[in-house]
DNA sequence: GATGGCCTAATTAGGACTTCCGGTGT
DNA sequence: CACACCGGAAGTCCTAATTAGGCCAT
């Protein structure tokens, strides 16, 4: 597979996009599960994502010209040579595992970042899967992990072609935060779930704690500080201009039945996630205050108006209301570097970045300077690698396999390094993979945590 | 012409909301 | 009175699996 990019506009894509994992599923088994060393091909692809665009659109209305200038320039072509594909895959996998410096993954790298197919040639159609931060949320409740890997009887496999088998059940929430898009060219797909959206907001300094905030982070309890604003954001994301809190609240109430959310009784606009990834990024009020003082990043005006009951106009209704005192969001070292990288690669443009997802220092699997290339979602997914292996994601085996693959690759690389240099290897691995970080844990939340 | 493989469009069905509503509680 | 909250019911949208039909090679 070859990806052609116009790098002039890549910065814009970086700002408003997320990583897409492409991989062939179902044709590998994880060693940890007693299978062979067959792996999916994983193609990390930078594609714009509607929900990120929606953030951008909140405050930064690009001019028509700029809109045209930044039209999609990503083209994907199928490579004729399977051999070449495998080589690229291996190279890209090495890139992912050796991201020691900011330049390791250049734009060129990024445009052709693959994960390896170490033992097998890909023979199945590639499925596009979006992996994002909350990849393990709810997965703890999924009871059929092992069944995903049990070998089907031969007769059953043979008969699946013609006989009408039970329909594939789409991934249900609560499930890992994975969006499966069969048609990879259908970029219009907009499948971020509401609970995922809320988690994203809770990790976004532009809206947390201004419009949504944690009231008891470790219990997963959050409050919709500005329910209207959050609803409008959700409506904007879903391209539902008429979205309001009543409607969104109905969706939230459906989450009660499905065990995704609980209502905190006696407190208005307060809900509780039933489970959270342990490495959830918690933005507190203090963070926001401090950060606003420090921030000087220009062009990050994609914020919604701040007054408690302000309206957030959707882009198709009117220009976003600007805050009288738009909160200056602080960019972490990650974000600052990202912005610098963007500026270095492209002409200045009104940036509508959503790069407020922060990483605690020294907790990233991939060091922070790589974030211009690797989305926060991917980072969190990577950080969940080991935990992921113990989860049971009934509906998303592929993604979890991929996560497991990454973890396995880290281990393999570490093992190889040990063989070559027993002294330096441990340190290198520590540096590359898990710098002082505990394995992320999924935390089932109970009322006792409150 | 028959058969089989491949491709594609159409169909079908399910999940996740969305919309509307009547009602209760604060 | 406004607002939050609840849950039923019906509808919409999106996606993935399946099916049917056309094309082509053997």
Automatic annotation (TrEMBL):
The keyword Transmembrane does not apply. Residues 159-170 have a biased composition (Basic residues). Residues 290-310 have a biased composition (Acidic residues). GO terms for molecular function: DNA-binding transcription factor activity, RNA polymerase II-specific; sequence-specific DNA binding. Keywords: Activator, Developmental protein, DNA-binding, Nucleus, Phosphoprotein, Transcription, Transcription regulation. It comes from the Eukaryota. Gene3D superfamilies: Winged helix-like DNA-binding domain superfamily/Winged helix DNA-binding domain. GO terms for biological process: cell differentiation; positive regulation of DNA-templated transcription; regulation of development, heterochronic. GO terms for cellular component: nucleus. Residues 436-450 have a biased composition (Polar residues). Residues 148-182, 287-363, 419-450 are annotated as: Disordered. It is found in: Nucleus. The keyword Lipoprotein does not apply. PANTHER family: ETS (PTHR11849), ETS-RELATED TRANSCRIPTION FACTOR ELF-2 (PTHR11849:SF10). Belongs to the ETS family. This is ETS-related transcription factor Elf-1-like. It comes from Stegastes partitus (bicolor damselfish).
């Amino acid at each position: 597979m070859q990806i052609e990019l116009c790098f002039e506009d890549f910065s814009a894509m970086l700002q408003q996009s997320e990583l897409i994992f492409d991989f062939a599923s179902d044709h590998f088994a994880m060693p940890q599960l007693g299978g062979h060393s067959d792996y999916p091909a994983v193609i990390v692809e930078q594609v714009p994502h509607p929900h990120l665009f929606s953030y951008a659109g909140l405050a930064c209305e690009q001019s028509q010209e700029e809109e045209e200038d930044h039209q999609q320039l990503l083209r994907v072509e199928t490579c004729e040579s399977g051999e070449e594909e495998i080589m690229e895959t291996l190279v890209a996998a090495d890139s992912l595992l050796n991201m020691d410096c900011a330049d390791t993954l250049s734009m060129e790298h990024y445009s052709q970042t693959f994960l390896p197919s170490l033992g097998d040639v890909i023979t199945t159609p590639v499925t596009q899967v979006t992996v994002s931060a909350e990849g393990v949320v709810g997965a703890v409740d999924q009871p059929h992990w092992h069944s995903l890997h049990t070998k089907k009887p031969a007769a059953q496999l043979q008969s699946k072609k013609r006989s009408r088998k039970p329909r594939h059940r789409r991934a249900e929430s609560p499930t890992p935060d994975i969006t499966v898009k069969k048609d990879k060219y259908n970029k219009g797909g907009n499948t971020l779930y509401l609970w995922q959206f809320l988690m994203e907001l809770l990790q976004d300094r532009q809206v947390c704690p201004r419009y949504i905030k944690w009231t008891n982070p470790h219990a997963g309890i959050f409050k919709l500080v500005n329910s209207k604003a959050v609803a409008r954001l959700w409506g904007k994301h879903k391209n539902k201009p008429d979205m309001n809190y009543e409607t969104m609240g109905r969706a939230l109430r459906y989450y009660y039945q499905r065990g995704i959310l609980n209502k905190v009784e006696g407190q208005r606009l307060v809900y509780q996630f039933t489970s959270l990834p342990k490495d959830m990024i918690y933005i507190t009020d203090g963070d926001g205050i401090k950060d606003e003082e420090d921030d000087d990043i220009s062009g990050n005006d994609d914020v919604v108006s701040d007054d408690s009951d302000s309206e957030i106009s959707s882009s198709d209704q009117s220009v976003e209301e600007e805050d009288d005192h738009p909160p200056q969001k602080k960019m972490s070292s990650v974000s600052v570097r990202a912005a610098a990288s963007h500026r270095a690669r492209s002409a200045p443009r009104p940036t509508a970045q959503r790069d407020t997802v922060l990483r605690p220092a020294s907790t990233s699997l991939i060091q922070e300077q790589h974030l211009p290339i690797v989305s926060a979602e991917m980072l969190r997914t990577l950080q969940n690698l080991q935990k992921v292996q113990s989860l049971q994601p009934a509906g998303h085996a592929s993604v979890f396999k991929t996560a497991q693959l990454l973890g396995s690759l880290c281990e393999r690389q570490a093992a190889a390094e040990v063989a070559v240099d027993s002294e330096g290897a441990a340190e290198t691995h520590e540096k590359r993979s898990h710098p002082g970080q505990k394995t992320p844990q999924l935390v089932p939340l109970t009322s006792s945590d409150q």
